[in-house]
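hey so i finally got around to running both of the ones u sent me last week. sorry it took forever, my laptop kept dying halfway thru and i had to restart like 3 times lol. anyway pasting them below in the order u listed, first the sequence line then the structure token line for each. didnt double check formatting much so if smth looks off just lmk and ill redo it

first one:
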Amino acid sequence: MSWTWADNWWGFVFIAIAGFLATDIWRWLGVVAGNRLDETSEALNWVRAVATALVAAVVAKLILFPTGTLEHSPAWLRVGAIAAGAAAFFAFGRRPPVGIATAIATLALGLWWLGF
């Protein structure tokens, strides 16, 4: 017996509803709750600190315990790319896109230079 979409449409509906319930409701609740938050509150400062710590942890994991092509790249190149990105970030008025682009470009050029 062959499978057709018309025979099992309810499975797709279930996936769509479950996906909506798992993600979009929380987004809307965040919007509603976020409108009532004071931007200078301690709770929001804590949320910012946790978000910053999570990003820093992911970056540190990529530098110290890389996978894929980065696993074969030298540690000095990974650390140098982050240092160049941080220097560009501060030199150009604390603009995240400048720091990120500089770090990526430094890493890409270093990998190209090393023959990766």
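and the second one:
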Amino acid sequence: MELTVYLAGQIHDDWRDEVKNKAKEKKLQLTFVGPQTNHERSDNVGEDILGEQPGSVYKDDSASSINNLRTEVLLQKSDVVIALFGEKYKQWNTAMDASAALTLNKPTIIIRPDSLIHPLKELSNKANVTVETVDQAIEVLAYLYE
């Protein structure tokens, strides 16, 4: 059985590589997808495709439309979603992706530190599983193969 896992979360560090490496070490048959992690590409995709926009609001709007389409397609094709909430960056996109996954009835694992228990309490309550570390999330996935 091969599962597709959408990795929602911050794009400014290497947590996705950590997940992929740990899954590979456990020989889990997983395919990973996620948001566009090239920040410049994500911000400019609207103008790259549609041409120069008349202002920053329009630039952001055109990029958002295309990024939202990409996210929706990949979320719908995913079997499981892992949403990592870290402490260093604002987590608006992670919250949006996790909420979209839950709306689509996708099995969802949330990774969040103790410091975010209170602000994420409602979202954690809706997720299938909430853990504190990448290792714990990998163990949850590994359990699917037992």
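quick thing i noticed on the 2nd:
DSSP finds six helices and five strands in the chain.
anyway thats it, ttyl
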